Amino acid sequence: MMHETLTTQDAAVNTGTVVGIVGEFTDPNALIHAAEAMRDAGFRKWDVHTPYPVHGLDQAMGVKRSILTYISFTGMLGGLSTALGLQWWTGAYDYKLNIGGKEFFNWQFSMPIDFELSILGTAIFTVLGLFALCKLPTWYNRYQEDESFKKATDDTFVITVDCEDDRFSEQGTQEMLRRLGSKNVHTVTN
Amino acid sequence: MSVSHLEHNPASALTEPIRDPLVLGNPSMKDVTARIASIVEGKITIKYLLTVTVTGCMALLGIGALLYTILNGIGVWGLNNPVGWGWDITNFVWWIGIGHAGTLISAILYLFRQRWRNAINRSAEAMTLFAVLCALTMVLSHTGRQWLAYWLIPYPNQMYMWVNFRSPLMWDVFAVNTYGAVSLMFWFVGLIPDLATVRNYVRSKVAQKIYGFFSLGWTGSNRHWHHYEIAYMILAGISTPLVLSVHSVVSFDFTVGILPGWHTTIFPPYFVAGAIFSGFAMVMTLLIIAREILDLKQFITIKHLENMNKVIMATGMMVGYAYAMEMFIAWYSGSAWERWIFINRALGDYAWSYWTMVTCNVVAPQVFWSKKLRRSIPLMFVVSILVNIGMWFERFTIIATTLHHDFLPSSWGYYSPTWVEISIFIGTIGIFLTLFLLFAKFVPVIAIAEVKAIMPGAQPSHHHDDHAHTEVAK
């Protein structure tokens, strides 16, 4: 809220600790181009916030491939082994109950529950893995009061460069973003 | 440059003008946000309140009847010997089947890159959740001593007893609960970015807090989108076999028994096709109402409805094929019991139910051969209702005709429901509609982020590595 009227001109006047620099894009092509330039310039602690996933942006930003698939696969194995273990241990080991002379355990009749629990395990691990990798929930973000930043869930691509980045300099980074076609580039403080 | 844009982007240059647009009126992204997010901010109208009151009363009637059942036992239902399953299981299978269209639209059409799904998947998924809830209500209430329903879960207990994993009824417990849980997770993950959009859109502080809480602090970070897209793909990938398995397992409840009319191998695919058929009909019914009341014609276009009508017609014919094949196999099998039960189905005490089913499910959808008719909203509304009715009668026919004539004529009977069963059924419809109305008012009813992603100009028009080369060359 306090940065509502913030423009590039009075950014330097603002007091408080510098958090980082924010810039807006509206054209996806310019965004991709800018992301590639940022990546190639060696920036690390920066991000692009978009209202929807933009094709090719991961590559342009140099985002490493997610390890989520491995987490999901672990969940699948966990679900499957739980199902097999549960059905074998309860039926064929802990309490053998003869029902119509059927076998105490075999893989054929265990299939439906093996399948369902594999799916359930995958789903739970996928969702929890997603939350862990994205650090969700985090109900606070340093940029959250910035008006440009809020537009990232509406119609604007918002690039943020954190002050902790080795290559960060308030003037230099601002100029670089402007050169790459970003609008309303400004410093965010809190 | 402009020439190379065209070369690099045949999709937008060539296919988009040919196909009907998926979002009408060429809105900006801001319009899309405002159009959908503003629904949650709008005033609650008298019309809305009245509708919720009516559906709420239906729900209360059902809850009252459920309490009456719990207090008195299921003897208050019309079940008898030999008909031990009646409206309870009919409703259970019907509701579970309705849920299937939601998963089909959200998962299978996603994997097949059917972009038209993006306007309707959210409401279809919500419908799945509420339908599964109604199905659970039905199946739990029929267990008799409902307060002991937790015995269905394998847990260490003082009786040293475990559940019987060789029984299809136990598979059903796992299938339905997995289905409910995975549908909930899929729906919620899909909602997170849109809840964040609403959080940043609404003006009221309380609403910002509530939507902020449920959006988990989503910022639209591309580093998050990267994981998110993979998670969504995995959830879609596992939901696809899941949805096929759930109704197959439901059909095992019948097929694993040895009763004529139930003990057939065609049941799993036949049940799945029927589930998708009835689910699409229910999505259709709800969407036709929702796009009128919430004014979503811009997003849920006639093209969406027409595509769904095609699915309804295709699955309707699969179901019709299954009816015919059941008859044929009953004759071809040479089993006197099997043959008799099917003749009895078409000509016996429940013939009225059988022919209602055939008329609604096989005959009614045939009108969609005509392009003009499948684009007619009043007609598709009528057909969707007929299909809902027909699919209910399909389950009733399967259950009642097989049970009411047992192997010995001494165990023959006839089943009709009591007011309690009818009230519970009306109640589940009330619960379903009430939840759907609440959803439509307070949750983004259309997947905002997904609609934006398919709008013209939303995606980069060329691969940028090529662009980088041209830059260097210049």
Descriptive key words:
heterodimer, A: 190 residues, alpha+beta, Alpha-Beta Plaits, 2 domains, four-stranded antiparallel sheet, 6 helices, 4 strands, 45% helix, B: 474 residues, mainly alpha, Formate dehydrogenase/DMSO reductase fold, 18 helices, 71% helix, globular, disordered N terminus, disordered C terminus
What does this structure look like?
The complex is a heterodimer of chains A (190) and B (474). Chain A is α+β, with helices and mostly antiparallel strands and 190 residues long. Chain A has 2 domains: 18-63 and 138-189, 2-Layer Sandwich (Alpha-Beta Plaits), CATH 3.30.70; 68-133, no CATH class. Chain A is built from 6 helices and 4 strands, in the order βαβααααβαβ. Chain A has helices at 28-40, 57-61, 68-94, 107-133, 147-150, 170-179, and strands at 18-25, 46-49, 157-162, 183-189. A 4-stranded antiparallel sheet of chain A has the order 2-3-1-4. In chain B, helix 10 (267-293) packs antiparallel against helix 11, helix 10 (267-293) packs antiparallel against helix 15 and helix 13 runs antiparallel to helix 15. The model of chain B is unreliable at 1-17 and 466-474 (pLDDT under 50). Chain B has 474 residues and is mostly helical. Chain B has a single domain (30-454), classed as Formate dehydrogenase/DMSO reductase fold, CATH 1.20.1630. Chain B has 18 helices and no strands. Chains A and B meet through helix 1, strand 2, helix 2, helix 3 and helix 4 of A and helix 3, helix 7, helix 9, helix 17 and helix 18 of B.
